[in-house]
Each structure stands twice: as C-alpha cells, then as structure tokens.
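Two proteins were folded this term; both appear here.
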Amino acid sequence: MNATRALYSLLTWCAQPLLRRKLRRRAAAEPGYAHAVGERFGRYPPPVDSLVPHSTTDPLARFVWIHAVSLGETRAAAILLAQLRQQLPGMRLLLTHGTATGRAEGEKLLLPGDMQVWQPWDTPGAVARFLRKFRPAIGILMETEVWPNLVAGCRERGVPLVLANARFNARSLGRALRLAPLAKPAYAGLTAAWAQTDDDAGRLRAVGAPVRGVFGNLKFDVVPDPAQIEQGRQWRARLARPVVLLASSREGEEALWLENFRKKMASALTSKAPTAINSEADGAAAPLAGVQWLIVPRHPQRFDEVHQLLQQAGLSVSRRSSWAVQPDAADVWLGDSLGEMALYYGLADAALLGGSFAPLGGQNLIEAAACGCPVVLGPHTFNFAEAAELACAAGAAQRVPDMAVGLEEAVRLVSDPAAQLAASERATRFAAAHRGAAAATARAVLDVLTRQQP
C-alpha cells in the first residue's frame, strides 16, 4: 500500500463514527438507512446455505456482483441484469447499494439464491471481510463508483472488477486529477471500463482507466412499464387541458419554478388580456393557468417539503398517494411515489428536466423519450451531455437558458397539438435508435468471466 492510500485508509477508518451518525440522521426520514448497518462495515450474519462454498473454483458457479449505488444506477443495472441472465442461465446475483432508494428498487431484481447487502465502507478491513464472505467471480461497478480500497482488494484476491455504463464528466476528471496519487491507481486497477460515449472514454483514459469499449448508455435499452404508460394516457385523455411535468426535480428547482410561475401569472393579470400571458412581454403562446402542472421530486424525503412550499404559496396541491381512481383537481399535482415515472411521463404532454435548471448536471432524459414525452432542458446537463445533445439534434428535446424560458417553451409546445404530437414521435424514434448497450455489455462481462476459468 502506497503512502497516499495508507493515509486515505486511515481517514476512512477514522470517519466510521461520522458515517454511523449520518446514517442515523438519514434514517429519521428514510428508515431504510437503519437496516443492517453492520453490513456497511463488512459485518454479516453467520454463514448461510446460499453462500458459495470455498471449494468452488468455477467462476461461473460464484456470485456475479453488481454494485449500483443509488436508484438511477439500480435501474440501469436492471437492464444489464436482464441480458446477463439470458447469457448466463442460473447465475447468482450479489447486489450492493449505497442508498435506501437503490436498495428498495434492487429488491425487485432478486431471484432465489441471490443476495443483497450494502456496499462496504472503503476501509481495507471492511472490503476484505466483504470479499472473503461472498467470493464474487466478477464485480461490476455501475457508472461512476470507483473506490481505491475496493479496487485494490479485488486485485489482491484476483477478482476482476469492471466499470460498466461508465460516465466521467469534466468535473469528475478535474477532481480525479487533483487527487491523482489516489485516483489514478484506482482507475488503472480496473480490469475494464466500458464507456457511454467517446468523450467519457477519453476522460477515463486520462486517469489511467483501461477502456475496452464504447457501448452507449444502458438506459436507452429500458422498456418503460406499458401498464403505467397506458394508465397515464387514460388519465390524460379525460383532461381538458395539457399537462406539463417538472420531472425528477432537485433541491431549489421547485422554488425556482414557483418564482417564475408567480411572475408569469402576475404579468398575465396586469396585461390587457387578463386571462392570458402578454405574448409580446413573455413570448408564451397560451395561458400559463391553462396548463395542469405536475411536479415529481427526485428524492422521496423531499415530498413533504415540496408540498409545504407549494401550499405556502397559496396553490392547491393533490398528491399522487391520495388519488383513488384518477387525479384530483388542484393547481399542482405532486408525484409522491417511487417507481412510477413511466406513469407520469405517460400523463404529461411535455417535461421540464429536473437537475438541469440548477447546476446539478441533469437527470436521465432517456426514460422520458422512451415514453414519448418531449423534454425541455435547462443549461446544466453535464451528467448526460451526449444524450442531451443527441436528443436536441433529433428534435426529441430542446434546450433553454433558464427556468423562465423553460416555462414559456413548455407551454408553447403543449398548446400546439400538432407540434406536440410531432415532438412525441421524434422522442420515441430517438430512444429506439440508440439501443444495444445492454447486449454488448453483457457479452463483454461474459468474456471477462470465461477468461477467469482455470
């Protein structure tokens, strides 16, 4: 162990009490964080029958380990997992996570013989206990999760560790280069990295990662729940006005939406046509109040916070959790459920992409496109830069400089049925044109695995 990683290991070991305190605090809002806390530190129950016997040498008889830190990565992992199960019949899955939402989503992917635990905290001891316990045949890290001691531990034990669906933006590269003595050995210690884009591949190579292919984004292979889409479209058909969705909004974006909404409404009330936005002043082609607004926060712990924000502004709010047969009448609908984005996209005529109006890099726009929902993007899409550029070029999305223009463009689009239908069809074609990453990644995983056979 070099001096830099030794110092890092000391710091991560000293930080364990802080991690426990953070978990206790988060568990107050999300009880899942209080579950099996010992797993975070490599402490597991006594051996159970489902674990792989130490006498097993065939890598195909051991766990295929996938690490998907949060909800988005877990959904990408589900796409890859479906292909892996086709190409490796009978494979046993070991699934790890870092967040409660990721773990809850991951439970849906488990079959008999599979296991699910928390990602070990990146101390040498926790990593060693994790690897001794589960003895994976391969580790697949989803998208961004590269930890120095985890990589080193896998190399020491001969466990091939790959980075799948890898994305690496300019900010990540800058941070990695500032921590080069720690980051470069970690990335160089991977067995393979399969990037989403050529730009991601170039940045990964700059920190020493062994890039073995550029396969595209797994999320293009997602198949949205058809029942959810149909339910959303049925509800939409009963409405007299179009629906605009603020999708997967992040902290601060709901307040930004509210600020601009109120400004636009005030402008409409003081214009010569009090029921419509002044087209010369605001550029909108239809009344802002003639749209049904739907807000779906990215993180469930913020549902109540957003509800309170909207109510304090004097808006009536109807929450998804209260809908019996169909949405209740209200100024704003609040999507306070998990795993129903296909329903919300099916219900919406257009979506403002969360995470792109604050400097957070944007959320995944691919699911919206797959559901046929055209997207309005803010200026910050560095997490999905190429997908955003391709979507705009294909007419499946349009970029705006800020939330104010975003509201105008969304209202303009949904107020023109012909334009909205054409944009919806372009979104569907765009999503279909970029599929194939899941099959390519699964084949690459199988190739790594078979090379490990004695």
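Next, the second protein.
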Amino acid sequence: MKIKKTIEKVPGGLMVVPLMFGALVNTIDQMHLPFIMNALKSLGVAPTDEGFYEMLRIGGFSEALFKNGALVLIALFLFSAGSQMNLRIGGVALKKGVLLTVTKYLTGLTVGLLFGYFFDPMSGLFGLSTLAIIAGMTNGNGGMYAALTSQYGNRSDVGAVAILSLNDGPFLTLLALGLLGSSFPIIAFIAVLLPIGIGMLLGNLDEEIREFLKPGEILPVPFFAFALGAGMNLANFFNPEVVAAGLTIGVLTTVLTGGAGILVFKLFKEKSYIAPVSEASTAGNAAATPAAIAAAAGVAGSSGMMSASEAASFQSVAAIATAQISIATLTTAILCPIAVILVDRYQRSKGIDGRMESEQLKESNPDKKVQSA
C-alpha cells in the first residue's frame, strides 16, 4: 500500500502526519459523541474522572503508548540521537559545523529575546511564545541539510552535520530560556541532558553500540508524535493565529538564520554558502521540544526554583507551541530547498562550484579563475 512512502512525501511527514492523526483522534474523543462512548462502555472501558469514555483512555499498553508515552519515547529518541553524535570529524567539517550551530542558536536566541522585549513572551503576536520561536529557529532539519548539501554542497558541508546534530532536542532551547530569565535548576538541565550524554558516551566508545542505536533516531518519532498529538485539539491547526504564527517562525527561520549563516561564512572567508542556507530550516523533531520544556518546568516548579505560576505557563503553551512549530516545519520544508537552489544558481553565475572543495578546484582548474568553495 506504500503507506510509509506516502507519509514521507509530506515534509517532516514521519512527525507531522502521526501528530495530526493523534490530534484527530483526541479531537473526536473530546467531542464525547454518545455512540462512541456507548460502544466503549459496552466493551468495559473505565470512565475518566469526568465520567466520559474515550478511545485514548482505555488503559493498559494502549493508553500508555498512544496517550501517555510521549516523554518516555522522546527520551529514547534523545538517547539514540546522542549516540550518533560522532566527535571524530575532519577539521573543515568541524569548523563549518561549529559556525552553523553557534550562528543558528544565537540568531534564534536574539529573535526570542527581542520578541520577549516587545511582546508578551508567553502569548504575544499571533499567540507566539519565546519557547516556540527559539525551539523552531534553533533546531534545524538534519535530514534535509544532509540531502541538500550532498546534492549541492561538498564533503565538508555534509560532514558538518555531526556537529549540527548537537542542536537536536530541547537542550539549547532550555539554555536559551535560562538566559532569558527563567530559573531552571541544574537538575532540570541534567534531567534533559542525561539521555543525550549517556547515548553520546556509549556511541563514541563502541561503534557497535552506535550502529545498534541508529534506528532509534527514526523509530520512536511517529510514536511520540502521535502521543503529542493525542494531547492536542485539531482545531489548533485551523486557528488562523496558530497558522500565522507557524508561518512567521518558518519565514524568520529561513530568512534570518540563513542570512546570518551567510554573513558568518563570508566573515570566515568561505566562498560557498550552500551549507548555511541548507541549515535554514525547522526540524520536525523540534515539535517535541515544548513537551520536554514543560516537563523541565515541572521539575523547576517542584524544586522551588521556579514559581508555580511560571511553571504552569510553560506547560499551558506547550500544545500551541507544538502546533506552531509543526506548521513552521512544513513552511521551511518548502522555503529552504528553494533558497538553496537560488543560492547555487547565483554562485555558479559567479564561478563558484559549491560541490567542490578548494583543493579540488585548484587541481581541476589551475588556469581558470574559478573561486574555491
């Protein structure tokens, strides 16, 4: 039936499609339709505390996986993603990876800081929060980056993905919110970082462990996506403000993080700008970040490092931020490749072949004035 191929045709499909399906099921649940509740009651489903019968609350393994499994599955994903962070990469790839990671992070942080200054940081313009902006702008789509740089860039561009993988997950967003004044205790950082750190340690100590955990970068994604959607109402995706907010994050991500990356590459004498533009996207996995931040806020609130009201505010915006970031993912999945194609055409008109390293260009064009990448 080609179900997987069909899903993958949607930008960020392995994340977005299950999330939307989970939201659809939960939306039907929240309607409390009599014929569905009667059918569930006849099967022996226990009622909720409010006295309703819901498809996603039938108990057992089903409820644990499809309704309540998001945080555990996200932790498994982060553990597996950490194991794939190879610390042994080439010098040029290391340089590019560091430049791209730092630039993307600082750009997202700056936009989040300015937004918090001019608007309500929890529900400002279009209902945007600093959480949604930073999570959406600082976390790039590694798969898209690898695909675009492998087609339009050179080997060191592709190799930079090993450093870029450091922005997978909620850590940079958590750090940014701390810099913006939210009081997360050390234990909140440890609680988020521990799965990534242990995975990174094991993956770099043993190549077989890294290979064993590699499927964990993909396998948990549709499952935690569905569970995240199971906490949302589908109406969120048809709310004009949520759509406008998602489009805003997407456009800002492509234009500002891509533009900032180009400026930094120019400052460091890089002639090809394929890599920074290829990184100007929002990862589908970034939609999992608000849930992780909400969990960290819960830790901070229970420890007394954050007021109960501030912790509750993070938890209350998590569902909306997830929807906004999902829309941003779709937006950048369209804008980012278009931007890469345009940059590639422009560079070629200037004699720059982004597919070739500088040494290759010198060897293949000793007498021609073709600029190195």
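The chain has a mean pLDDT of 82. The radius of gyration is 22 Å. These notes refer to the second protein only.
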